[in-house]
Each structure stands twice: as structure tokens, then as C-alpha cells.
Specification:
Strand content of chain A: under 5%
Structural class of chain A: mainly alpha
Helix content of chain A: 55-70%
Number of helices of chain A: 14
Order of helices and strands of chain A: HHHHEEHHHHHHHHHH
Oligomer: homodimer
Strand order of the largest sheet of chain A: 1-2
Largest sheet of chain A: 2 strands, antiparallel
């Protein structure tokens, strides 16, 4: 278990090493046939992602008193879903990106067909690891799978959000429509990270509602700062192509509010996010630190 | 419940209408946003597939005494996984096909990005419907999800088979390698159809082994006759591009054994398939009829 008294930096480092170890156990080795498929999966999975979602799973689970051992499959599953979505979103017919997590994108290195299949396979492994986790009761496992499937799918999940995002490129959309895109595309799996960890803790309905609200706000904050970083940071720092949103004519928070306005919005959403923690009757320092970290992040 | 005394044709018709009704309930309507994504999903899902896998689920489940109600989610989930795999396999970077089930392929009608996302979404809905089926215990549900995930994924499942298939195009491969491709690409989900239905029936280990062996042989027979149809039938009858295997330089059974040799092989595998039914101490007429149907099928 990650002690809550650690500072955030060491908490995040622990989260990376814990989830990476789990992922390495689950995903077939590069020597297993079809080797090229497994190399492609591992190329994208171990490209140095920040593992924000797994860290958030651990933070919420620990807050509600769950041992980290019981959170590992969930953390790994959510990271696999996230990675598969990056692989598919980077494809030429989608966002057409060459750089991700500081490396060549999966299709650039392994070809489009292998990249599509690597994403498809990652999605199946995510559900497999949840279904087979003997540290959790079957009742909990089916609830987690339901949460992850709804969060990753359609009509309110990640795939739906990505679809609306692609359809909106180059179009005039309202800030409400922008929020709707992000609630699906990024927000849904951040909400699932929190909700599913809370489900493992078998929290009350009241706490589940409170943590869902916190995660919704955090997801919004995450996206606002993501939009800011796209404008203000270099490709080198981000590990993905900077300035991409403007090039692809995507609506972003800075395109609505400008840089200063967006920074102010981020601060406002941050305040709302942490205010929500008052509803949770547990020590929530780690969740507060995560909200601070998302506000101030540099990549 | 589908009575076992019906003839096969009416059994197959019932299977189609049962699974189609279930699919229609599960998948978001075309009016639900993002509407274009749901239209794409429904375009491919309701394009008049033969629903062989759902029918096989019902046949195996009924053989072991399970009510059809308890088989509907499984049948629908397996059909959704199958449909998503067709959508992705038809993409330009994969098999690049314009025609499927007698209609334009998903990417031709809706564009590549939407087709990729439609496939991704179908995969999530498949796991969701299994996780949320309250007619099954949570223990059964997690076993089904594990079976489906392994069958659809890698290293021994459908995605792995598709990857090896793509890598083998234009290469000299042995008949053993060809069988390995099909064991994954087509065989895995046919095996899962049988195994998962038997798991719902809570059959003995011995029966699970016997039905797995039957399904493996049936899957092989299915592929051999598929290869024959690709050479002998018209595009119109097949609803997909005929003669595709030769054009894309794919190894097939006819390319190894010629047409007559392949027909003889099909008859041999058919005999082995039905011989396996002797190990099952239940009335297996319907399974026998399905094996006969696969041997003699015209599309």
C-alpha cells in the first residue's frame, strides 16, 4: 500500500512502477508470437506515459482504505484502455499524429494494420484482467467491467467523445459542445478511474456520488490544462506534437477565452474541484495534491 | 426456448430473430448522439449477417439444457465482437474490402475514422452486456468475459490470428501455419461460442472438453468451406468480394490441395467433427445438423 503521507512526487513514482510491473506481467512478451503485434503493444504501452489514471485509481482507492493489491488490475486495465485509445486516435484517418509520449506513434513504427490490431488487443486484455482478478469478488468484477465498458464506449463514453471531436474539427461549436466532447473523450475514463476504485472500496452511495463529482471536475481541469499546454509548451516537453489543436482547427478553451481567460478558468475549476472534497469524510490530502498537480502541471 | 425438434432451417431463422431483437435493444438507436457513430454500428450489425455464431451458442446451450433467455447476452456479445472484427478487417490498411454482407463496408459508407470507432464501440458494448446480464450469476459472467476476451484477443485469439494472416500475405506458408492462422482468426470465437454456452450450463469438465473439441473441428470445417466458397461462389451469393483470397495472395486450402482435394478434406473433417459428438451424453441432433449445414453451405 502506498502510504498517504508520502509527498505527491514519490506517490506518482510509486504508481508508475506498480502499474508498469502489473502491465508487464499481463501483456504477452515480445518473444511470444505474433511477436510484431506484441512489440507494437509494448512500444505504445511502455513509452513512458505519466500513468495519471492509474495514480488516480490508487489515490481514490487508498483514500477509501483499499489495499493497493486490489487496485492493480483496475489501474492496469484503465491504462490499457487509455493506451489503445491513443494508438487509434493517432491513426492517419483520425488525428494523424507521428509522435506520442516522445516516441514514434504505433502506426508510424509498425504500420497501420498492426496499430489497429494492437489497440484492439489491448482493449480485450483490459477486460480479461478485470474478469480474472481473484483478489476481487465476482460481484465487484462485473461492476468494474460495466463501469469501464460504459466509460470507454458509447453513447456517453470515450469513443463517443472522440467521434464528436472528429466531427467538430473545423466547425464552429459552442463552449457547451466543447465540454460535452471532453466529458466523453477524456472525462469519462477519469470518472471511471475514481468510481471503479470507490466500488472496490464498497463505499456508500453518498461517497460514490461525491467522488464522481470530484472526478468530473478534475477531468475538466485536466482538459483545460491540456489545452493550455498544447499552446504554451514545446513538442519536446509534451512528448506529442505541440500546437496541434490550432493546426487541426480544433475548438479549445484558449480559442474561446484566450490564454489569460483560460488560466483563470482553470483556477476556478480547481477551486470547485477541491471544494467537493469537503463532502468526503476521509483524509483527502492526496486527492487535493492531485488537483493541485493538474492545475500546475508542465506536461 | 428453441425446441430441438425443429428442423435446422427454422432453428437458424429463430436464432437470427432472437439475437437481432437483443442487439436492437442493446445498441444505441440511430437517433442517439453521436448519431453517425450509431448509424455506422447499426449499418454493419444489421446488414443481414447469417448469425452463425449466435445460432451455435443457442444450439450448444439448448443441448445442455439452458433456457434461451440465459444465452441471449452471450449470443449478442459474440456477434458484436464478430461484427467489429469484420469492420476493422475490411479497412484499407487491412484486407481493404468494399463489400460485406451484401452492403458497402462500414468505412466506405461512413469513412475510416467512424469505422474504426464503430468497431471499438462494439467491442465495449459486447463486454458491457455480459457484465450486466442479471439472468446470470456474477461468477458465470466473469467466466464468460474471460473466455470472450481471450478468444477475441492475443496471443491465441482472433486478433492474433488476423495479425498472422496479414503478415502471411504473399508468403509461402505451410499448411500447419495456415491452420494456426485460422485457429485464431475464425476458430477462437467459434470455440468460445460453444465453451461459453457450456459454461452457462455449468457442464462437467468432461463435457466442456468434448464440446471444445467439437467446436474446434467445426471451426476448421467452417474455414475450409469458406475457402471453397471464395473460389466457387459469386460475389452476389457471398455478399462479400469473391475470389479475394487469390487476389490478395492468401494461402487457402484450395491453394494447397486443389478444389477436389479440399472437398475431400472438408468431408474428412466433417466426419471427425460428428464423431466427437459420441462423447457427449445428451441428444446432439442439432449439433449434428449444424455440422452438416457447414459442410454443405452455399454462402
Amino acid at each position: 500500500m502506498i502510504p498517504e503521507t508520502q509527498n505527491l512526487e514519490s506517490f506518482l513514482r510509486s504508481a508508475v512502477s506498480l502499474v508498469d510491473e502489473k502491465l508487464d506481467q499481463i501483456v504477452p512478451a515480445e518473444t511470444v508470437e505474433p511477436a510484431d503485434l506484441h512489440r507494437a503493444i509494448r512500444h505504445s504501452l511502455f513509452a513512458g506515459g505519466k500513468r495519471f489514471r492509474p495514480a488516480f485509481v490508487f489515490a481514490v482507492g487508498n483514500t477509501f482504505g483499499v489495499e493497493t493489491k486490489k487496485l492493480l488490475s483496475l489501474a492496469a486495465a484503465i491504462e490499457m484502455i487509455h493506451t489503445y485509445s491513443l494508438i487509434h486516435d493517432d491513426l492517419p484517418s483520425m488525428d494523424d499524429d507521428d509522435l506520442r509520449r516522445g516516441h514514434e506513434t504505433c502506426h508510424v513504427k509498425f504500420g497501420e494494420a498492426t496499430a489497429i490490431l494492437a489497440g484492439d488487443a489491448l482493449e480485450t486484455i483490459a477486460f480479461q484482467v478485470l474478469a480474472e482478478d481473484e483478489d476481487l469478488t465476482a460481484e465487484i468484477r462485473v461492476r468494474l467491467i460495466s463501469e469501464v465498458a460504459r466509460g470507454a464506449g458509447t453513447p456517453t463514453g470515450m469513443v463517443a467523445g472522440q467521434h464528436v471531436d472528429l466531427e467538430s474539427e473545423g466547425k464552429d461549436i459552442s463552449v457547451e459542445e466543447l465540454e460535452k466532447i471532453h466529458r466523453g473523450k477524456t472525462g469519462a475514463m477519469i470518472r471511471v478511474s475514481a468510481r471503479a476504485a470507490a466500488i472496490i472500496a464498497e463505499v456508500s452511495e453518498k461517497d460514490l456520488e461525491a467522488i464522481t463529482k470530484f472526478a468530473s471536475n478534475l477531468g475538466l481541469l485536466f482538459q483545460i490544462t491540456d489545452d493550455l499546454l498544447d499552446v504554451t509548451q514545446t513538442t519536446e516537453v509534451l512528448g506529442k506534437t505541440a500546437g496541434k489543436d490550432v493546426l487541426s482547427e480544433k475548438a479549445t478553451y484558449p480559442s474561446f477565452y484566450g490564454l489569460d481567460g483560460t488560466r483563470k478558468l482553470a483556477e476556478k475549476v480547481h477551486r470547485e474541484t477541491i471544494a467537493g472534497l469537503e463532502e468526503i469524510e476521509k483524509p483527502t490530502e492526496i486527492l487535493r495534491s492531485i488537483a493541485d498537480y493538474i492545475l500546475d502541471r508542465r506536461n
